[in-house]
């Protein structure tokens, strides 16, 4: 392609992204994360040492040159709202750029909150129409991945689609947990089924299905029309996957957009961290020498709010009392004081005191681990004060008496489980 054609193509993509509003659905609890979401929405859960889950779709928007973003909140959104206000206020309203919080307001029904993903958008339809976008990009706020949405929007336009659905390839046995598409050789969607017992197989493949990522590009006028129709349908569950998408397949053009690495053609990194085991594993992956998710990529930075903390510090160098971290990620403000940390991820302002050992664990911000503790394969929630001599992760039966232990043997510890009243009503 010539330089002139490349420039024209880039200008066209820029025009498309300028005319796009991204809506991040961030109202869900994520109950499979157990006590981690007792006091925060799933998109607000910390991830990767210094981020929150919602930082990933938000950063994808900014890096894709989509600068008009609405975040639809509902369940226990206080920490999420504060995070957005503190870390995402750098866009310039003078240029039509914004990250807007759009809490559930009962704008169309004073007796109900958001009933489903489609209803969350419908209840804000008057606000969105007034902003007059050409395209609406609908995103889930609770997955970890890096994706150029501008390429998906360009593909949507090139194929003259009414709706384009982002998808990943998954083994058939895993597809039962997703919305699954049946597509033809041109990627046109012929059927869409939520959590099917017998998922359709990809064309030309064996034991592989195309699963929805919960990412949709709509022509705006088409979206308004379908949302209004759905709102008038009494039997609808007000959900994109269960109701909107199946109802339009026969009459309109729906395309699948595979989320593939442009260089290798292989499936790109995408993680649903919706369970304790999946959350722990995704954080542990980051510690690897060459993790699939590269947080050190300066061409696609992950933006976030971060407190102003001093560098991590490691103190004492005696044979029995050496501050050290091996095969680990340690964030700013941490102090490893005569303790050993192995194959673990420490968020900011964690302190591990003398003679303690932390192995294969995720330690969230502001945790203090007292002396002579042994912690293995655990998630220690924010601001826990772990008492001296505590042993976690060595005896499942003992752990289950006090903490939550996952099917995969990950021990989740919260302040309340330790008898500390961090959250209380009375």
From TrEMBL:
EC number, UniProt record: 2.7.7.27
Gene3D superfamilies named among the record's database cross-references: Hexapeptide repeat proteins, Spore Coat Polysaccharide Biosynthesis Protein SpsA, Chain A
Highest taxon of source: Bacteria
Residues in coiled coil: none
Molecular function GO terms recorded: ATP binding; glucose-1-phosphate adenylyltransferase activity
Catalytic activity: alpha-D-glucose 1-phosphate + ATP + H(+) = ADP-alpha-D-glucose + diphosphate
The Nucleotidyl transferase domain, residue ranges: 22-286
Domain Glucose-1-phosphate adenylyltransferase/Bifunctional protein GlmU-like C-terminal hexapeptide, chain residue ranges per copy: 310-413
CDD domains per record: ADP_Glucose_PP, LbH_G1P_AT_C
Positions marked as site (Could play a key role in the communication between the regulatory and the substrate sites): 74, 113
UniProt record, GO biological process: glycogen biosynthetic process
Pathway: Glycan biosynthesis; glycogen biosynthesis
Residues at which alpha-D-glucose 1-phosphate binds: 114, 179, 194-195, 212
Keyword field contains Ribonucleoprotein: no
Annotated keywords: ATP-binding, Carbohydrate metabolism, Glycogen biosynthesis, Glycogen metabolism, Nucleotide-binding, Nucleotidyltransferase, Transferase
HAMAP family cross-referenced by the UniProt entry: GlgC
Known function: Involved in the biosynthesis of ADP-glucose, a building block required for the elongation reactions to produce glycogen. Catalyzes the reaction between ATP and alpha-D-glucose 1-phosphate (G1P) to produce pyrophosphate and ADP-Glc.
Record family assignment: Belongs to the bacterial/plant glucose-1-phosphate adenylyltransferase family.
Complex formation: Homotetramer.
Record protein name field: Glucose-1-phosphate adenylyltransferase
Organism: Methylomonas methanica (strain DSM 25384 / MC09)
Gene coding for it: glgC
